[in-house]
Write a structure and sequence with these properties.
639 residues; alpha+beta; Serine Threonine Protein Phosphatase 5, Tetratricopeptide repeat; Neuraminidase; Immunoglobulin-like; 5-stranded antiparallel beta sheet; 34 strands; elongated
Amino acid sequence: MHKYFIISIALLFLNGTLCAQNIPKEARNYLEEAKLYYDQAEYIKSLEQYQAAYKFAPNDPGINYSIALCYINTYSYDSALKYLLVAKGTIKDPMFDYYLGIAYHANSNIPEAISSLQAFRSTLRTSDKELLAQTDKYLAYCTNAQNLMAKPVKMTISNLGSTVNSKYPDYNPAISVDESTIIYTSRRANSTGGLISEMDGHYFEDIYMSNKNSNNTWGNSIQIDQTINTASHDACVGLSSEGQTMIVYKADGGGDLYYSTLSGTTWSKPVSFGKSINTDAWEACGNFSADGNYLFFVSNKKGGFGGTDIYWSKKNVDGTWGMPVNMGPGINTKEDEFSPYLHADNKTFYFSSQAHTSMGGFDILQATIDLSVSPITVKSTPENLGYPINTVGDEIYFVWSADNKRAYFSSAREDGLGDKDLYMLERPEAKAALVLLKGTISDCKTKEFIQANINVTDIESGKSLGKYTSNSSTGKYIVTLPAGKNYAINVEAKGYLFYSKNIDIPKLDSYKEIDDVICLDKIDIGTTIVLNNVFFDVNKATLRKESETELDKLFDILSKNPKIKIEVAGHTDSDGDPQANRTLSDARAHAVKDYLIAKGISADRIIYIGHGEDKPVVPNDTPENKQLNRRTEIKIIEN
């Protein structure tokens, strides 16, 4: 809405309403105060005075229309309808049918909205370009709403309950990819600083969190401490997939983005994303890709397509962020785009838009993008997620579960606890081609949880695809693995031998979870590890190139611990001739020794042996077990 033009007409009208002769005396003082506030654009205070006057003259068309205008100027279009209907037929404001149309639209009465908007449009001249464009936009909203509401999406929507929600506004949910933690923004009476916004009458924003219980319910909300929450506005707008890094919006300086990392149970002081991301403009919200290598964020800086646009930035090797790139016309429009969210499959991109096929305000749309090229390419036309995921109101800050079945969002609904609440929607069918690897990491002997680094590598290319960290207090880790690659997983912690795992996901059309409780052994005599990402050509002792990443990690340990001596042991399954197996395993162990020597490790620090099929770890009765028995082991024999 072109607000300033509309306000000027509304002010002319309000100047006349106060002169009405049939308004009770008791209401007139309230009306005078209301007009003063309205003239100063203090619509909430003006509304309070008009509502006080309304008690004495509930059927007065002028007072009802004045209340409606206050609601319209605070974007509460749905609340305006009741008062507009009382004023209908009496008020002769040329904008009346426009206001009535958008109020009908906000209440999902689409036929009446179209009728009122068309009536208003018929009164406009060709020179009224701005109002024509605005009216046509709302008529397009109505058409989209009719089409989408005629084919509703099957789903259930449930309130997250009183342990999360309050009677105050609760919104901006951010979840870890395993849905065990939800962090969100609330405007409660215990807000840090206790300040109240003059714009909307609510307390300033603070950040809260809740953890999921073992019975799948949400635990009591926890207000994050004053390391993050300050006397100003502090909002959580994004969370890394493993829940260890939070994106924080701070209103100071015009609105910038910060990040905070979790160490055990303590969040660090927020750090600015820096000048490459934050500008003199408004940077409002952001989200990471699941691997943490990309940041998608919103800005209204100059050079965009109009309003707020969505940008992306790639993390540099040194941890800083590269120069942002606009997502382009496949995503951004002359209207506002908001709340970007890349699903853990690394290709399904969700965002909110006031354009495309919106049925009113911001709608949630999805598109397919390609991260393998630069700049990032939008591969599909954005698709509206449908009704009732989207409504005639604003749908922003939707975040999706890894299996793509559930979304968390905020909404003001009749079953709510008060104002906006957090909800979960669940749809019966959805597909997500990825594996979620999760569990805990601990010390093998003491069983104490440890903080470890998890490195994910594309075995074929040797390219690092993501780095994750386990939580030092809980040992918890989460790694997302989109389909289409063969992954090497390496877990490292200072003073420990690394742990490796190979996960090959060449094709997958559904979501899968793998629980892997990992323990690390300290570097000590007798400690043994399996090199799960060391590969040989079939029936040969030729190391494949994909083995280099893992062998280089072994080299790194030997380099940093010069007193260590190791035994390299080769093993096979029971297929074939036992003597040939022993010879092959011996040659493969020798190949590993040769690789390390070529890298610079002294030959006298490495012995090798081939055991053939003599020492299986599981029976050789299935292809999977045989693969486990075909292995290369490292044993520390001196430290």
